[in-house]
């Protein structure tokens, strides 16, 4: 899974015959004025991403309140704030997963990460925090793919460096609190082979060069490693890629929580699925976590001033938020008191919407700040407290992750009570 | 390794910057009037392959008498008939292999096969018979790749069918007499992964989409499995792909005996090698074994009347040779006695040149037949004897190959005395 780099087009999921007309869809994307691929996220004229338009462009569905209510009913737990507040806002056949779950059928979760730097930022944690909630709420097994091969191929780093990053990132992921009795973490360099490789080949046979050029925007100057990669990210969507978990069962459903920029991979995967005898994986897709400087796409892992890292000290968090977090407050105290804050563009409020658990407090802040009765400094102060607590909790948890624990999570092994 | 299918261009081995101009080289190939790729072998205007021109087109070297003499001197054994008679006629840096061997440095052999049908024909045996000679003469380890993934991707067959064919073909290969203490046979579906996969990724990073389109003739409608495959065939050229044999040693030389249609894969591999810290693999390359109907390229595995199969009965061999083997003899007895046979086009003589061990007898037949004193029927009779003996020997040897022996050859294991 990628989060920066070269360009590409987008396309509506479709029958195999339609997907070969990706150039047309790519043009549609240009007309829509925004480009979202695994390597590029850009709103129209450098502005905000229009997520409603993206749903139409991509052909996925909006995750509505009825579905959220159903999740609460089926799991007997309150929905995660990321669900209640529309952070995970779109889906593909998530309703079918719930239908199956209701009938007592099993499914598994699949998410992943492209290990690109030693430290993760808060945006990187979003899918993992949400996946942990799903795992706990539905009591299902989870596979987490670390695409060290992809990072080695897209970035100018060696196999060894990429493997090192994968292992370091695994520690951060484990620190999110996943249940070792239901979680298998693997790196591609370790795990590609056997049944997984066979599924890669089966998938690759279903996708033409023209199609990947349309879906991912590959060009003739790209190396063939890039062209070879999509089946690697697709393969974990199919249960037989994990014989130690699912044996030869082809009928176990897969649900993929991810940021919506990964959708192109799984449109391709869903097109291939029925042709090779698998169920289409379902998706539940999130917004991008905004940069401190404002809400025009995803954060950069390379510019440390754009994000709060899980390695930041309390002092760094305080400084970054006070200095960089884009404020929607009035230019002057007088104007602020008179007109209130513009919550649509205010980063402290957006960050609190992700990470402040208490719905009532969040509403209160929005009301008071929006009315100009609360000041930016006060909101930032609350955000600093919330994020410092999260980062500190993560820091402590990560410090407790030993090499042995990493080995244990990454061991190819059955998970005896994975649905228990 | 392939032996039939779609088209493609050819190119001279070159620096990375030059190989991206493959279209130019492909045009050169068209000018030369013949096309030789792993999937297509066609002489000018459907005629014979001009091998001297092919050497120039591909940029490899002619294997001359001085080199053959040197092989005899270094191994203390007479050169194999395939060497003496120019069946293996071209090479890349085979001289460097001999230099290294002379200095006491180690090398290993790598050859392979794309399992496409249950039965092998005699042309399929040629590289294996020669590889066995090389293994015995130089006392070196050998890796044999069965590209079941490639066959699954190029042909419309399932993973399981392709794996089955690989295993059946392994029995024929083992029946050629390879030394189990020095031979590792592997199928890609079994073995891809780990260090092998890492080398695939390293190679893939060195080759652009434009380059493989130029080298192999891939087009937009081809599926991406084809585009992904060249690094799979390239990886065994590098010793670290076999950690159970060579550990982490990057300096072990590789010699690849193969038919010259496989040259495009290894031009690509040789271009990549120095960029990822490996020695370029050396090649020793053969002519194509002619079809019974005449010498205009390779045989077809799908038309059983074009070839002698290792499963043919003595009666079938006799019938096929008498009925189909193209004769260069005179149209009438009178003309034959007067003008003699045209040995240039005569298939019985060509087949004897491959498989009749006795140089003196072969020369005698050529002399007498060429002068019209020997008749086609007599030459065919001798060929029937020779091939029946070879096929019977193979049949018996193959019948003795058990599933346990296949498992033993294909076990991922050290070869303790591989240079002993």
TrEMBL record, chains A, B:
PROSITE patterns given in the database record: AA_TRNA_LIGASE_I (PS00178)
Top-level taxonomic group: Eukaryota
Cross-referenced InterPro entries: aa-tRNA-synth_I_CS, aa-tRNA-synth_Ic, Rossmann-like_a/b/a_fold, Trp-tRNA-ligase
This protein's record includes keyword Magnesium: no
The keyword Protein biosynthesis is assigned to this record: yes
Compartments in which it is found: Cytoplasm
Top enzyme category: ligase
Gene Ontology BP annotations: post-embryonic development; reproductive structure development; tryptophanyl-tRNA aminoacylation
Pfam family, one: tRNA-synt_1b
GO (cellular component) term, any one: cytoplasm
EC numbers for this chain: 6.1.1.2
GO function term, MF aspect, one: tryptophan-tRNA ligase activity
Keywords in alphabetical order: Aminoacyl-tRNA synthetase, ATP-binding, Cytoplasm, Ligase, Nucleotide-binding, Protein biosynthesis
Family membership noted in the UniProt record: Belongs to the class-I aminoacyl-tRNA synthetase family.
Protein name per Swiss-Prot or TrEMBL: Tryptophan--tRNA ligase, cytoplasmic
Organism of derivation: Marchantia polymorpha subsp. ruderalis
